[in-house]
Amino acid sequence: MRFSSHNVIMALAPAVLLAASAFGLVAGCGGSHGIETKVSSDGTATRTLSNSEIKLEGAMKYTGSGERSYIIEKQCFLDYRARETVSGEMTYEIVLTYMGIEELGIEPGRSLEFAADLNSYVLSADGPGKKQRDPTGKSYTETLAYPVSGERLMRISEADAVRVIVSGRAGEVKGAFDEVNFANLRRFVAECVRPVGSGSPQK
What we know:
Blueprint: H1 12-23, E1 35-39, E2 45-54, E3 60-62, E4 70-72, E5 74-84, E6 90-100, E7 109-116, E8 119-125, E9 130-133, E10 140-148, H2 150-158, E11 162-168, E12 171-176, H3 179-192
Antiparallel strand pairs: 1-2, 2-5, 3-4, 5-6, 6-10, 7-8, 7-11, 9-10, 11-12
C-alpha cells in the first residue's frame, strides 16, 4: 500500500486510494512486487508492476526525538506498465504518483528524469495528469503517465546508481533507487520488456 509505517500524513489516504483506483494501481505492500496482468475487451494485455516507492530527499519533518517523532510530508511512487495488442505491438509507460502536503504542480512535458550512472533520460508526460486535493485541503495527489521505450527501461535497470528527479511549477523533488527499486524494475524488464527484434518478452 502507498503508506509509510511511521506517522504518514493520514489525510492523504482518501485521495491516494481514489487515484490508485482510477489508474488501476492498488497493489500489496512489502519488498519486490508482483506483476498483475489484465486483458481488455479488445484483447490488449496490460502487465503492471505497481507501487515502487522512491524515497525522496527531505521528505520527513522531525517533530521531536522519539521513535515516532516525524511525519512524511511527500512521497513518490512509480508503476511500470507494458501493453501488448493482439497484433503484437508493444508499448511501455511509467506512471508517477506524487503525494504531499504541498502541491508540486507537475505539468505535461519533460518533468520526469532518470539519472542512470552517467546517462540522463528525461521523459515527457503523455497529456495532463490527474490531480486531486484531499477534502480537508491538507494534501495533494498528482498522477501522470510517461511513455517510455523498452530500451530505456533496460538501460535504467542495468545502471549501478539511479536518481529520480520530478519537476513541477513549485520546484522539484529528488530521490534515489534502493535495492527494492532496482529489484522491481529489473523484474519488470525481465518479464515484460521485449527486446527490439524479439518475438516475445525476454525471460
